[in-house]
Amino acid sequence: MSFKELQAKVGRAEDTLEAHERRIAADLRVFGDSWREAWTPPRLVAAGLAAGFLAGWARPARAITGIEPARWLQLAGSLAGLASSVHAAFTAADAQDAAEDAGEAAAASSAAAGLAAGATSAGTAASTPTTASAASPSERRYAPDPSWDAPPRPAEAATEVSERR
Q1: Residue 150 DSSP symbol
Q2: What distance in Å separates the CA atoms of residue 34 and residue 28, rounded to the nearest whole number?
Q3: 65 alpha-carbon distance from chain centroid
Q4: Beta-carbon neighbour count of residue 13 at 10 Å?
Q5: In this structure, are residues 38 and 30 in contact, taking their beta carbons and an 8 Å threshold?
Q6: pLDDT for 78-96, tens place per residue?
Q7: Which has the closest alpha carbon to 142: 164, 116, 111?
Q8: For residues 157 and 78, what is the distance between their CA atoms, to the nearest angstrom?
Q9: Predicted TM-score of the model (pTM)
Q10: Residue 119 to residue 136: CA distance in whole angstroms
Q11: Nearest to residue 144, comparing CAs of 118, 95, 111, 113?
């Protein structure tokens, strides 16, 4: 047998293989379509009822861990409560941050209004010294501590005091 005949034989085998692959792919598509069409809603309900009956009869939770299903429900309820409390804590922290930001913005706008009013009455502002006690209670409450902007001292660098920022 010559080399060209062997090449032709290999070419025919490849063509045959590709034809088989196409036929198998078509058969799998038809099988998938018929499988999906066979699962009509009544059959789904019947399969769910049968699976529920078998699960209740076999009691897999007791067989696996020795825990009654009611204990699983208690555990699920506890975890749901834990998740909701964690979510509430994060929401409260976000609300507190938003309130602090709003207070800082209000303090900044009142300070800007004070500067504008001070520019119009420069004579009276120069004669009256301004102190921290003259500020309103809301401005003092939201004023940032100047020590927060300073870098930590070397002795505090590795302590939790420096990580409160």
Answers
A1: S
A2: 10
A3: 31
A4: 10
A5: no
A6: 888 888 888 888 888 888 8
A7: 111
A8: 40
A9: 0.29
A10: 20
A11: 111
